[in-house]
Amino acid sequence: MNSEKFISKSPEETKAFGIHLAKCLKGGDIICLFGDLGSGKTTLIKGIAAGLNINPTNVNSPTFVLMNIYEGLPPLYHFDLYRLEDLHGISSIGYEEFLYGQGVSVIEWADRLGKYLPEQYLKIELKHKKLNERAIRLSAKNRNFNYESFMY
Ligand SMILES: Nc1ncnc2c1ncn2[C@@H]1O[C@H](COP(=O)(O)OP(=O)(O)OP(=O)(O)O)[C@@H](O)[C@H]1O
Ligand SMILES: [Mg+2]
Fold this sequence. Notes:
This protein is an alpha/beta fold. The protein is globular, with a radius of gyration of 14 Å. It has one domain: Rossmann fold (3-Layer(aba) Sandwich), CATH 3.40.50. The model has no long low-confidence stretch (mean pLDDT 93). It has helices at residues 11-22, 41-51, 87-92, 95-99, 147-150, and strands at residues 3-8, 30-34, 67-70, 76-80, 104-108, 121-130, 133-141. Strands 1-7-6-2-5-4-3 form a 7-stranded mixed beta sheet, with helices on one face.
C-alpha cells in the first residue's frame, strides 16, 4: 500500500482528518500540500494544529510573508507559497533551517518549490469534488508511513 484516499464531506471532517494525522507526526516531518484554491489546505492545517495542541484559530495563511510559526511541542511551520514569485524568495527566508529543523512543516502550494521540493515528505493532494466534498489523497514520498495504523 503506498497511498490512501479519503473523502471529506465537510470542513469539520477535513479538520478531523488533520487532527488524526497530527497524532502520527513528529518534529522534522514535512507535509507538502497540493490542491487548487479553496480545496481545503488551510482547513486541513487547522486540524493538524489542533492535533498538536496549537490553537487552530491562530492558523491563517500568511498574507505578506511566506511562513507563520505557531509555538508548540513540536512547533508548526506553516508555509503558503501562493505568492512566491521566484525561488529566490524561498531561499531568502532561510526556509531550509525551518524545513529541516525541529518542527513539523506544512507547505501550501508545495508545487511552487520546484527543485527545492524535499527528498522525503508526506504528500497530500486535495481535490474539490462538490460544494462540501473534498478528496484527500495521502502518500509517503521516500519515507515510511504506517497507513494501517493511520486508518480510521
Ligand atoms: N470538505 C471540506 N473540506 C475542507 N474545506 C471545505 C470542505 N467543504 C467546504 N469547504 C470550504 O472550502 C473552503 C476551503 O478553504 P481553505 O482556505 O481551507 O482552502 P485552501 O486550499 O487553503 O485555499 P487557498 O488556495 O486559497 O489557500 C472553506 O471555505 C471551507 O469551509
Ligand atoms: Mg490556504
